Amino acid sequence: MPEFPSVTLRDPSSTLTATYVPVAGMICTSLADDGVEFLGQRRGLNAYVTAGKTMGIPILYPWANRLSATKYGISGAVVSLTVGTGGVRADEHGAPIHGVLAAYPGWLVTEMSENSLTAVLDYGGRPRLLATFPFPHVLTQHITLAGRTLTIETTVMPTTAASVPLCFGYHPYFMIPGVPREEWIVTTPDMRRLPVDNWGIPTGETEDWHAGNEPLKTAEYDDGFDQVPEGAAFALSGGDRRIEVKFEKGYPAAQLFAPRNDDVVCIEPMAAPTDALRRGNYRVAAPGKPETARFSITVS
């Protein structure tokens, strides 16, 4: 397996560490407390780099989750996506999934300290990327580890007169070490569930989802939501451990993913619901008005 340079963030006040690999798409590969890992490693970093098989905390950009077709319209124009070209990957049904930045090597680290990391990607300077998402902008990730909280800020700054659709997200794979999956507790806020079809695409129907603490047991989740309140908190807990995910700003949608064949639970912050890039139900970053989204992960 090839070696990929990594950066490990530490805060002197805590034993928690966060490890990032900028050359592999700014993925977070580890969130560990004194060596005890809280992120699902799944097939590992090499499979992410070579085949886009997600693990840790990858960014999903410029769209999160699936699109219902390989074309989308913007201002009267149509953008066509070709699976296998320009970073476009497909799920088992052929639906484009998770954007085009999986393991993308073009991030530039601009600032770094013991407990923080900033990296930028000039999307407008990459013809391969613009072919699939023709909106020139600069994308910035600013990561901070303070005490027992990892905060991830993402800023989209348009660089031309074109507004940039905000449909991205993150896909954290969480686990509670030393506690059986059946005993994990999933905590969710009030929000709205978006039922999906057999391809994982929202049907257009909606259901109220009430806040609660539910034992995972043998449940399987692959559920999308919108109307997530700003500042809403999700959590995964078990034994004496708890992971809280706070949607601090700019993430009004979410996905919960808990497969039966893997001991992980994903609490995914999303700037827009699944398939928003095709349906138009998204916010934009307007020229001269960069937009920043922020979520945090606290391990206790």
UniProtKB/TrEMBL annotation:
One of its GO terms (biological process) is carbohydrate metabolic process. InterPro entries: Aldose_1/G6P_1-epimerase (IPR008183), Gal_mutarotase_sf_dom (IPR011013), GH-type_carb-bd (IPR014718). Gene3D superfamilies: 2.70.98.10. Coiled coil: none annotated. Pfam families: Aldose_epim. GO terms for molecular function: carbohydrate binding; isomerase activity. This is Aldose 1-epimerase. The lineage of its organism: Bacteria, Bacillati, Actinomycetota, Actinomycetes, Mycobacteriales.
